[in-house]
Amino acid sequence: MLWSDPPDEPPEELREVQQKLRRMGYVLATAIMVGTLVLLVR
Description:
Elements: H1 12-41
């Protein structure tokens, strides 16, 4: 990589979208686990 190359960091907007997707993934995984527990307990 040359010193004149632009940095590899994604733009601010893309980072925000990635954070939102990561949060949605955690929420979805938690919801699936809770739903599975509810179905198993019934």
